[in-house]
Specification:
Blueprint: E1 25-28, E2 33-35, H1 36-40, E3 45-49, H2 56-67, H3 69-74, E4 78-83, H4 87-97, E5 102-105, H5 110-114, E6 118-119, H6 123-132, H7 137-140, E7 148-149, E8 152-156, E9 162-167, H8 177-183
Parallel strand pairs: 3-4, 4-5
Antiparallel strand pairs: 1-2, 1-5, 3-8, 6-7, 8-9
């Protein structure tokens, strides 16, 4: 997708189950480099796209992920969150959610574009996000396009193939921990029934 392509939420379809994800690099809040191929050497990966620290639904979802992190680890998976916000705003996400997992700054929407989840909200939504929720999208993102990712969850196997996804244009609908656990490729003998 071209950098300045502006699409509606209906035009963003997302990668499908069975698609392979191209390798990508990004930085976390500590300016450490994150590489997808290296991360997949450790096992399956749960990738979650969020809109930002201003989004109450994102914060609630990340708190649920944090509370269940030990289960995800027991299933042999790791978690990475992808945000279009710069590090100073990602730090606010961590403060609000207690997140102990990796959160990447998706500079220029490269990762969201790779997953085909980038869109531009309509004018009314942008007004609400910026005015009432304090999103400051032009300030908090790498450009002033005010694009966002559809909040979505993808599970990748160790080969980088998508084995499950949750993608819904309604930002209130998020992946459930049970669905994530049930779709992680089996890496251990851990059973959900033992919890």
């Amino acid at each position: 997708m071209k950098k300045n392509t502006i699409r509606s939420i209906k035009e963003a379809k997302g990668l499908k189950v069975g698609d392979y994800v191209k390798n990508f690099n990004a930085k976390d809040i500590y300016e450490d480099k994150y590489n997808l191929s290296n991360a997949l050497k450790n096992g399956p990966l749960v990738i979650i796209f969020i809109r930002g620290q201003w989004c109450p639904f994102c914060n609630k979802h990340l708190k649920q992920i944090q509370e269940s992190l030990y289960l995800l680890y027991a299933y042999g998976a790791s978690v990475v969150i992808v945000s279009p916000e710069k590090s100073e705003f990602i730090k606010k996400t961590i403060q609000k959610t207690g997140a102990e997992f990796t959160i990447l700054y998706d500079e220029d929407y490269k990762i969201a574009d790779t997953f085909d989840v980038t869109f531009r909200p309509d004018k009314m939504s942008l007004f609400m996000y910026n005015k009432f929720l304090g999103a400051k999208l032009k300030e908090s993102h790498s450009d002033d396009s005010e694009r966002l990712p559809i909040p979505a969850t993808f599970i990748l196997d160790i080969d980088g193939k998508i084995v499950w996804r949750q993608l819904d244009s309604n930002h209130k609908n998020r992946s459930k921990i049970e669905d994530i656990l049930n779709n992680i490729p089996k890496q251990s003998n851990f059973s959900l029934h033992t919890v």
